[in-house]
Amino acid sequence: MTDPRPLILSCPLPRSLPLILAPDRLAELRARYRIVETTDADLPGLPDAVLGEARYIIGQPPLDAATLARLSSLRCIFNVESNLLNNMPYDEVFRRGIHVVTTGAVFAQPVAEIGLGFALSLLRNIHGADADFRAGRELWGGEGNGAARLLTGAEVGILGFGDLGRASARVLAGFAPRLRVFDPWLPASRIREAGAEPASLEAVMAQSDVVFCTAAVTSENRGFLGAAEFAAMRRGAIFLLLSRADVVDFGALMAAVRGGHILAASDVFPEEPLPADHPVRAIPGFLLSAHRAGALDVAFRRMGEMVLEDLALLDRGLPPMVCKRAERETVARFRSRPVAVN
Amino acid sequence: MTDPRPLILSCPLPRSLPLILAPDRLAELRARYRIVETTDADLPGLPDAVLGEARYIIGQPPLDAATLARLSSLRCIFNVESNLLNNMPYDEVFRRGIHVVTTGAVFAQPVAEIGLGFALSLLRNIHGADADFRAGRELWGGEGNGAARLLTGAEVGILGFGDLGRASARVLAGFAPRLRVFDPWLPASRIREAGAEPASLEAVMAQSDVVFCTAAVTSENRGFLGAAEFAAMRRGAIFLLLSRADVVDFGALMAAVRGGHILAASDVFPEEPLPADHPVRAIPGFLLSAHRAGALDVAFRRMGEMVLEDLALLDRGLPPMVCKRAERETVARFRSRPVAVN
Amino acid sequence: MTDPRPLILSCPLPRSLPLILAPDRLAELRARYRIVETTDADLPGLPDAVLGEARYIIGQPPLDAATLARLSSLRCIFNVESNLLNNMPYDEVFRRGIHVVTTGAVFAQPVAEIGLGFALSLLRNIHGADADFRAGRELWGGEGNGAARLLTGAEVGILGFGDLGRASARVLAGFAPRLRVFDPWLPASRIREAGAEPASLEAVMAQSDVVFCTAAVTSENRGFLGAAEFAAMRRGAIFLLLSRADVVDFGALMAAVRGGHILAASDVFPEEPLPADHPVRAIPGFLLSAHRAGALDVAFRRMGEMVLEDLALLDRGLPPMVCKRAERETVARFRSRPVAVN
Amino acid sequence: MTDPRPLILSCPLPRSLPLILAPDRLAELRARYRIVETTDADLPGLPDAVLGEARYIIGQPPLDAATLARLSSLRCIFNVESNLLNNMPYDEVFRRGIHVVTTGAVFAQPVAEIGLGFALSLLRNIHGADADFRAGRELWGGEGNGAARLLTGAEVGILGFGDLGRASARVLAGFAPRLRVFDPWLPASRIREAGAEPASLEAVMAQSDVVFCTAAVTSENRGFLGAAEFAAMRRGAIFLLLSRADVVDFGALMAAVRGGHILAASDVFPEEPLPADHPVRAIPGFLLSAHRAGALDVAFRRMGEMVLEDLALLDRGLPPMVCKRAERETVARFRSRPVAVN
Predict the structure, then answer these.
(1) Which of B323, C65, C226, D338 has the least C-beta neighbours within 10 A?
(2) Where in this chain does the record put each D-isomer specific 2-hydroxyacid dehydrogenase NAD-binding domain (chains A, B, C, D) (predicted)?
(3) What is the ipTM of this complex?
(4) pLDDT at A38
C-alpha cells in the first residue's frame, strides 16, 4: 500500500532543512510529506518513479528539459537560497504552470533594521564617537556634534521597492521622512499606495539626505550607480548599499566617500571575503559590515515557515501566497550571484 | 512717548539668544519686544522701572522674594536651560499665576533618535563589526552574527514617559514592539492612550529586550536602578541610559555589562568630562557617547521657536501651550544638575 | 479615633455617582474616601468641620468667597458636568492652587464617531437611500449615486482642536484626508504635531469638502459662523455641527442647506427640545440628531474612572493628569450652557 | 508603412471607454495604441490580420479555442467588468502566458467607506433618529441612545480578505478595533501582516460586534452563512453584507434581523432590482442600499488608470502589477454573476 503523502525532493544547499526549520516545524514537514533528500548533482539520476511522483522541490537544482519532463507531477520549486539562477528551461516551467518561488523576503526585515542602524550611526557618528571615547579623545556635548543631523523629517530615497525597499520604508515610519522611491519595474500607483513618491533616479540621488540602495542586480542595471550619480548627491548625504555590490561602481563610491563628498555604509562588496589590503578598510566615513545584514537565525527559520504555509495552500489546489513567485517575464533577468555560505 | 512693546529680561546663559533663534527669528523677537539683556547676577540690580515693567524673563535667574516682588508685571519665566532649579520662591510664583516653563522638549527627538541608533548598534554590533573590519578581523555572513537579534517585535521597556519617553516610543513605531512603560507620576490611562502598557519597574526590567531609561532625576529616584535591577534583566538585554547618570548606580551598571549579563549604552556619566582613566572606557559591550545626544543646533533653534509661539499666546492673554509648564506640586522635586556648556 | 481617609463633598447633579461609576468602581471610591453627599444648595450650610476637612469636591457648586475660605483643605474640584460655569471666585481658587478639572473629554470619542457617521451618511446618502428603499422608490447602482463622493483623500476642516477636534482627526485616520484646523487658542506647532495644517477660518470654510465644527462657545465666538461663512463653502460641501448651537447663526445654516448650497448635520440646536414645528425638521439635506452624540453610558462611566485616577495622583501630592484642568486665563471665558439632563 | 502601435481589441460592455477613462486619459490611450472597437459577439468574426496582431483585449469576451488560437499575439485580457466568468479555455490561456487581469479593486474603497457608514449608522441609529426627528418623535440626549455603542475598541470580524476586506480594515484604522479575519484561501501570516488575527468562521461570527462580509462567491461558498451562523452572533451585533447576496441564506438573514437578534445592512440582494413587495423592505433594523456601494464615477475612472499603468508595463516586457491577476488555480471557481448596469 502506497504512502499517500506528497513527495518532496530536498536539495537546499547551502541551506539545510534544520537551518530553515525549527525542530518542531521540521517534524511537521516530515509528518506531512515524504522527503527525498538529494543534491543538485544527484537529482537527475533519481529513478523515474521518484521524479515522476515529486510534487515539490526545496532547492534550486539545475534542470534540463529531459529531467523536467520526468518531473511530471511537479507543482512548485521552493528556492530557499533566494537568488534566482537561470538554470532551468523557464518557458516550459511556466507553460506547465509550475510555480517557482523564493523566500528572500525573510532577509528584508533584518537588512532594513541594520540599514536604519547604519543611517543613525552615520548621522550621529555613533561608531566614531564610541571609538574616540575608548581612545580618550571624545568631545563633549555640542562640541562632539559637528555634522550631526536628525533623521526625523529628512528626505530619504529608496532605490528599488521590493521587499527590502518596503521594509526600509516601514522601519523609517517613526521618523516621518519625505520618501522618494525609484523603481523602474513598478508603476507609480504602487509606490504612492505605500506612502512614498515615485521619483527618477536623478531626483532620488540629488534630493536625498539618506539613500537606501535596495535594488537587485539584473541584466540591465549592473553598475548603474557611478561617479556621476554620487557627485549629484548632496554634500554630506548618506549612501547605504544594502543589496548587491554589482549595482554600483564600487571604486566610484569609495572615491566619493574618500573625497568627503558623501558618507556611506556597505554590507556587500565586489569580492567576498575582501582582501586584507582592500583600500575601503581605511576610508573614514565608510561604515563597513561583512555581508552580515540578513544572515540571522530568525530569518532562516522564517524561510521554513513560509514554505510550510505555501505547501499547505498548494496541497489544497490553491496558489502559493507567502513566498514570492518568479515572473515569466523577469525570471531570467536576475544576475545576483548565489551565496556559498549562509 | 513710551514704547508699547512688552519688556523681556534676557539672561539665558549658557544659552544665548543667537543660539536659540535663527537670525530672522531673533529679528522678529527684537521687533515684537523690548529686550533688556542682563545676567543672573545683574538682574536684581536693575532699576525698579525696568523690573516693574518686565513681562517675561528668558532664563532662570535666582530670584529672592524681594526681587520677585519688584517684578510686579511678570507673567512667564522661560527656562531655556531646561533643568528646573530650586532657586526662587515657587509658592509665591504660582500664587501670582506666573508661569514657569521649560523648553527641554527640544532634546526629546535628537535623544530618542540616537537612543534607537544605540539600540540597533548593540543589537547588530554595528560599531564593533566596523572596528573589526578596519582591523582586518571581520567575520562574514552568519559567522559575524553571534548574538545578533531583530528589534521588530521585541519587548521594549521605557522608564519615564515624559517628552523623551514619548519620542522614544515614536521612533520605535516602525518596529511594532511590545512596549511597557514605568512612570510613577503618570496614571495608567495616559500610558495606554499612547499605545503602551503601564508596568511596574520590576516588570520592565525583567521582561524587556531593550530598556530606554529616560527618567529625570528627582528627589525620590536617585540611584533607583542598581545591582538588583540590572541582575533582573534578561541575559543579553540592552540598557540605554539617555537621561541623567544619577538615576543609576553607575558602578553597578558597569559591573553588569563587564560581567557579560547585559549590554549598555550611555550618553551621561557621573562626572562630565570623565577622567581619562575611568574604567567604563574599556568595557566591551558598553557603547559610549559624551553627552552628545541632545545638543544639536536644530534643537537649540527649536527652543526659540517655542518661546516665540508661547509669547504670542501670552500677549493675547492666553496660557502658554508649547513649552512645558512647571507644576506647583513637582517643581521643587527635580534634581538634575544644570548644564555648563551647550 | 478619626477616619484618615480624605473627605470628598459630592454634588454632581445632573450626574450621580452611580451614573459615572460602575458598581465596583463606586465601591472603590467609597473604600478610599469618606463621601459627604450634598447638593449645590446645601453645601454652604455644612458645618465648618466638614468644609474644613474636604479635600475634593465632585460637582461644580456655586462658591462664594466665604464658603471658599471655609474650604481650607480643598485641593481639587472635579466638574463632572463638564461645562465650566463662572460661579466661583476663580482668582482666589487659582491663587490657592486648587485645581478645577473637567471630564468632558469622555464625550470626545462618542461625538467624533457619530460625526464621522454623519459625514459618511451625507456623502453617500445612506439615510436617504434607506428611506427610499423602504418606500419602494430606490434607484439601483450608479443611478442612485448622484452626488456620492469618497471621503478618502478629501479635504477636511476642523474648527476647534480640543479633545473633540483631536478625536475627530483620529477617527478620520483611515481615510488619509488633507486636514486643516482652525483654532485661535492653539499655536501652529501643536496643530502640526497632530498631523494637520493650521489654517484660517476662511481657508477652512472655503477649501473643505467636510467641516467638523467642534468649537466650544466662549465669550468671543458666539455666532461666528454665519451666512458669509456658509456661502464661502464649496457647493455640496458638508457642515457638521457637533459642539454647541451658539457658535453658529442657526438660521443662516438652515438657509444655506435649504438653498442647496451645502449639506449639514447637527446634534445641537438653539432650543432643546426643539418645538414640534421648527422648520429645520423639514429641510432636505439636513441630517438631524437630538443631542444624542455624547450621552453614552460608556462615556459617563469613563468620567468616574478619570476622577479615580486623578484622585490617586492628588493623594500622592502630584497634579491631576487625566481630567482637563481649567486655565486661570480662560476659565471665565466659556459660555456653554450647562446641561439639565444626562 | 505599418502603424507600430500595439493593437487593442475593446469590448468592455457594460463599461465603455469614456466611462473608465477621463477625456485626457482616453486621448492618451488612443495616442499610444490602435484601438479596434468591437463587441463580444463580433470579435470572433474579425479578420485574422486583426486578431493576429491584437496584443491586448479590454473586456471579457467569450473565447473558444479556435478564436484564442487566432489571437496569436495576445498578451493580456483586461477584464474591466471585474467578475471573472468561466468563458474561455483558461488552461490554454495560462499555458501561453496570457495574463487575465481584473480591475475590481477600484470598488474596494467606495464599498469599504459605505460599509463603515452602515456600521456607524446602525451603532448609533443615525438613520432612524433622523427619521424620528423629521416625524417629531425624537428622543433627546441619553433617552435616544438606547442601544448605542462605540466602535472604538470593538471586536470586528471580516469575512474574506481580498481588496475589499483590506480596504475595510484600512477605514477602520482610526477606531483601533480588535480585528479577526476569516479567509480560507489566505495563509495566517498574510492576515497577521495586515495587523489582524486569522480566525475561524465560527470565531468571527461568535466574537464580533460588527461583521463585514466581503467574501466573493465561489464554487465552494454559496450560502455558507445561514441560520446557524447568524444565531451564533452576539445579540445586537451587526452584519454588513457588502459583497454578493449569494454567500448568505438571505431568508435566514432576514429572520435573524426580524427576530431582533442582530442588526444588518445590505447593498446586495438575491434579485436586483428587488420586487416592490419584498419583505426585507419592512424589517426594522435592516439598513438597505440598492447596489450603490461601489458604482461611483471616481471608481470607474480609476479602472482606466489601472489599465494604462499595466499596459505601460506590458509594453516594456514586464508583468502587470496594478490590476489583479486571475490565478490558474482559482480562476474557474468564481461564481459572481456579471453586472448588466454600471
Answers:
(1) C65
(2) 117-293
(3) 0.95
(4) 98
